[in-house]
Design brief:
This protein has about 70 residues and is an alpha+beta fold. It contains 3 helices and 2 strands, in the order αβαβα. It has helices spanning about 10-20, 40-50, 65-69, and strands at about 25-30, 55-60. α2 links the parallel β1 (about 25-30) and β2.
């Protein structure tokens, strides 16, 4: 079984990929800044869908409170 990396340009596009039954994603890299919604909001939506994924958040934030969130 091979591994494939896919890229989405927006949260909306990423949601479509995550819900595609042919794909079985196991890991998502997500920036905290996305063009259409915040990366944290996208992460929360992903959790609500009960997807069994590992998520790695990427950020350039320097504010301690934002990092903790």
């Amino acid at each position: 079984v091979g591994c494939v990396a896919l890229q989405a340009e927006s949260a909306e596009e990423a949601k479509k990929l995550l819900l595609d039954e042919k794909l079985q994603p196991i890991l998502v890299f997500c920036n905290t800044k996305l063009p259409d919604i915040s990366g944290l909001e996208f992460f929360r939506l992903t959790l609500k869908r009960n997807l069994n994924l590992s998520v790695c958040m990427i950020s350039n934030k320097i504010d301690r409170n934002e990092i903790i969130e």
